Amino acid sequence: MAFSVKSNKSGKTYYLHARDQLLKGGHRQTIYFFAAQAKEGAMNSVPTGYQVAENVKTGLPLLKKG
Asked: pTM (2 decimals)?
């Protein structure tokens, strides 16, 4: 089951996803993002070293290191 978080501001549920992105220099980096629907790349838990926070203005969830 995909990791989900409910926004305190809007009440909507968002699902955590990950995708490997190829950068211009040829380096690969994992991108983490939240989406309204669980699709391909949905994660079951928060990656080690990260915590979920919420943008105060928009109510959208985000990952912070720490």
From this structure: 0.88
b/e sequence 23-55, b meaning 16+ C-beta within 10 Å: eeeeeeeeeeebeeebeebbeeeeeeeeeeebe
Q: Please give the residue range of the domain that contains residue 49.
A: 4-65
pLDDT one-digit tens code per residue, 6-60: 999 999 999 999 999 999 999 999 999 999 999 999 999 999 999 999 999 999 9
Instruction: Report d(CA 64, CA 8) in Å as an integer.
Output: 17
Q: Is 21 exposed, middle or buried (0-12, 13-18, 19+ CB in 10 A)?
A: exposed
Q: How many domains does the chain have?
A: 1
Residue of 6, 4, 60, 62 lying closest to 31 (CA atoms): 62
